[in-house]
Amino acid sequence: MDEINSLTIPLQAKLLRLLQDKTVRRLGDNKERKISCRIISATNQDLFIMARNGSFREDLLYRLTPVILDIPPLRERAEDIPMLAKEFVSRFNEQLSMNIKLIAQDLLQLFLSYHWPGNVRELEHVIESAMSMTESTETILSNEHLPRLLKKRLIGDQETTCLSNIEATSNKPLPELVRQYEKQTIENALILNSGNVSQCAIQLGITRQNLHYHLRRLGINSVFYKAQSISDTTSSPQKQN
Fold first, then answer.
1. Quick one: how far is CA 7 from the chain centroid?
2. What is the rounded distance in angstroms from the CA atom of residue 191 to the CA atom of residue 227?
3. How many CA atoms lie within 13 A of 128 on its CB side?
4. Whether pLDDT at 15 is above 70
5. What are the tens digits of pLDDT across the range 144-178?
6. What is the pLDDT of residue 105?
7. Which residues does the UniProt record annotate as the domain Sigma-54 factor interaction (predicted)?
8. In sequence order, what DSSP letters do the residues of 75-92 get, joined into one string?
9. What is the 3-state secondary structure (H, E, C) of 13-37?
10. Looking at residue 27, what is its pLDDT?
11. Rounded to whole angstroms, how far apart are CA atoms 222 and 194?
12. E strands, 70-208, where?
């Protein structure tokens, strides 16, 4: 059940009765029937807060949450963006009869710096919009394919984020700022190069051995950033939540 937070209070009462009694009555029927089921639900709001506010039944909440899987928003898991982007490109290659084989680094870097208030669905929308602007013979998707309004939104958010970061870090000691910037730079390079340490070292202008030293010192695992190629996602699609 998607967006279970949108259920009205009367419908919540019916669902609660179903979970308690394990019976249903079909439309037009005059008898109860036993059922055996499990409810898997999703929400984009905090049901515990909704229960405190009275907009979600507390008794139903505890029936639905013996197991909770919390999926962070896309802005908190930037390492997933290349994999998701490639999956969407693969999907729209088929739907739009395109042959995009590569996402340009300028576009991927823009994705990494964007805040994604619309989460994964917004990323999917942006990629579909960009691919709709490409020619059928093109094989590289870049930020030049973004419609003007989308490009303005992504770049404008990047500028706002930079200003916010400057304000947030103005009171931090210099060594901490240097470490934070160094870690973010290396992580972005790993994302752009799908976890390939050799290519990452070339992009950063340091030796492979030196990069391994920094990875150990900063506690970064390069394997975590490895992503599939677009051709791989065609045969093994990823399930989206």
1. 25
2. 8
3. 10
4. yes
5. 899 988 888 888 755 445 544 555 555 678 788 78
6. 78
7. 1-132
8. GG-GGGHHHHHHHHHHHH
9. HHHHHHHHHCEECCCCCCCCEECCC
10. 86
11. 9
12. 102-103, 140-141
- Spatial distance between the Cα atoms of 205 and 209, rounded to a whole number of angstroms: 12
The CATH code for residues 172-227 is: 1.10.10.60
pLDDT beyond 60 at 235 = no
Give domain limits for the chain: 4-64, 73-148, 172-227
* Predicted structure pTM score: 0.62
Fold of 73-148: Helicase, Ruva Protein; domain 3 (1.10.8)
Question: What is the longest distance spanned by two Cα atoms in the chain?
Answer: 76
Report the distance separating Cα 123 and Cα 88, nearest Å. 9
Asked if 79 and 191 count as a contact pair (C-beta separation under 8 A), the reply is yes
Q: How many other CB atoms are there within 10 angstroms of residue 228's CB atom?
A: 17
Nearest residue to 110 (alpha-carbon basis) of 156, 176, 166, 44? 156
pLDDT tens for residues 174-187? 788 788 888 878 88
d(CA 140, CA 103): 6
Extract the tokens encoding 124.
């999917």
Q: Look-up: residue for tokens 């639905």?
A: 64
Reported as a pLDDT band with limits 50, 70 and 90, residue 47 is very high
